[in-house]
## 1
Amino acid sequence: AQSVTQLGSHVSVSEGALVLLRCNYSSSVPPYLFWYVQYPNQGLQLLLKYTTGATLVKGINGFEAEFKKSETSFHLTKPSAHMSDAAEYFCAVSLRAQKLVFGQGTRLTINP
Amino acid sequence: DVKVTQSSRYLVKRTGEKVFLECVQDMDHENMFWYRQDPGLGLRLIYFSYDVKMKEKGDIPEGYSVSREKKERFSLILESASTNQTSMYLCASWGAPGNQPQHFGDGTRLSIL
């Protein structure tokens, strides 16, 4: 069965610092991978997705993620954090099926 | 842009009540989903539907039912609300399963007193 693990339920960085949110998945076949962001009192919004092709994927708001098959990872990064990046981030995996499996979420805090 | 609309942002109900949460999407998507979101647990799938009048149990269907009479509308029903169903409920629609993203509503924060 597929599963997704996000390492760290809370991550705190300083404004301008590198953001790194970790996601590992388990899957017996190549998955489709997604990162979503949730701002307070809102639904989930797609940040980026990996399906096939280039393993480095660029998304909205300066975020990017790299699919590493050998490490079964899909970590999310942003070179320079902004106060507006404070939110909860979810990694999700789909096996071309009708369901997404979500990680537990990582709450990102930005310190001034 | 896809629009997924949940009928209420905040809802307060009493234990034992029958509760209806409504969700409407405007993109003619076949697939619709109900999740509940709790701190530290991420999103857990309650029910989903891949066609009108069709439904499938997700990971935590106990205490819930759903209705899909029209393609654009997917309702979640708490048959007899209990305090452990206090949560954030998120509806999503999905036009092409697999490599396309799901689109989410803004959520309903439900409190059962």
Note: The longest strand of chain B covers residues 31-38.
## 2
Amino acid sequence: GAGVSQSPRYKVAKRGQDVALRCDPISGHVSLFWYQQALGQGPEFLTYFQNEAQLDKSGLPSDRFFAERPEGSVSTLKIQRTQQEDSAVYLCASWSWAEGGETQYFGPGTRLLVL
Amino acid sequence: QQQVKQSPQSLIVQKGGISIINCAYENTAFDYFPWYQQFPGKGPALLIAIRPDVSEKKEGRFTISFNKSAKQFSLHIMDSQPGDSATYFCAASKETSGSRLTFGEGTQLTVNP
């Protein structure tokens, strides 16, 4: 595709509900990242995939957060039993080498509001 | 632990002026320093990036200045335009960690016409 796409763009959940956020990376991008961006803050790393392998999940804030990328392309971030503090924008980025450095391409994000 | 500190939090400049945003980092293992621009409702977009083997990089109206000994880097936007009004984030990464980015807190830039 032309860029990283994410769905849904907006999600309102009741506290305790489970949610699933989808990321479609740029075709052929091996690496995929999830970040969480609280209102007025910079994005914070959640987890990283290289193909289907989850190589780093040190940023996941609790065991309620789970991510997968079973076929090495589309990824899903799942949040179980959502809490109000989970309200944030969830950004997905895919990565490839560009001349002279690394370029991470970000999707538009999914804005999650937990009531 | 905030490993990348960014200032100012907000900045207002007049059209045609110079916008300067500063960042400082703590982890000497960082070796890639990008700046991202983010408009409301959009994801961050790479603006310009630098590696520590050079002290300055210029692309059009955007320049990064890098001071390795001080562990500081800055973004200069020359001839600032109203269309530059956005939130700017500095970031840093270590290649060995698969390029996960550590972001600063962001600077909201407003360029008045």
Note: Chain A has a mean pLDDT of 92.
## 3
Amino acid sequence: GENVEQHPSTLSVQEGDSAVIKCTYSDSASNYFPWYKQELGKGPQLIIDIRSNVGEKKDQRIAVTLNKTAKHFSLHITETQPEDSAVYFCAASNDNYGQNFVFGPGTRLSVLP
Amino acid sequence: KAGVTQTPRYLIKTRGQQVTLSCSPISGHRSVSWYQQTPGQGLQFLFEYFSETQRNKGNFPGRFSGRQFSNSRSEMNVSTLELGDSALYLCASSLDGLAGTKQFFGPGTRLTVL
């Protein structure tokens, strides 16, 4: 089955700096890669996603890149703000699993003012 | 549009008891998935329901079961609770449950087993 690894497990950046979180997946059939942000006491919130026929997607300060050959994808947050502090999860899914998303272990991002 | 709602938000049970959790998906969404979140195992898929039928199932024992009603609302049941069942149980809904469909999570139910 699919296995998703995520690095780093914790990340501290200064406000205004960029943050990058990387994930790798094992199943070459995976074709959909969402990223979620989870704040304390809340459920995961979808912040951006990318499909396997696209190499990069951007939404304001957030971007995701996908390298299908290497089977890894990354989340880039620019101009970080204190409210970006949260746990971020990457996930992978494919047609074999339908709505069964396999999640990475998460990255705790702290943006220091 | 209202988001995914889950009730109750917090629950305390003792070992051996059973529990039922409820999830109301976003209006118009027909697929509901359940996940267990723990510090040690992270987010793990339990099962997914679409049009009142279980379509996918994760690697959890038979004590974990669920169902979906005609209005797409879903319930999850855990019987014979164990200490290790203490977790945040998350429900997620999507429009059609097809692979690659955006999935939206509720706030979760925090279950504590004593």
Note: The radius of gyration of chain B is 13 Å.
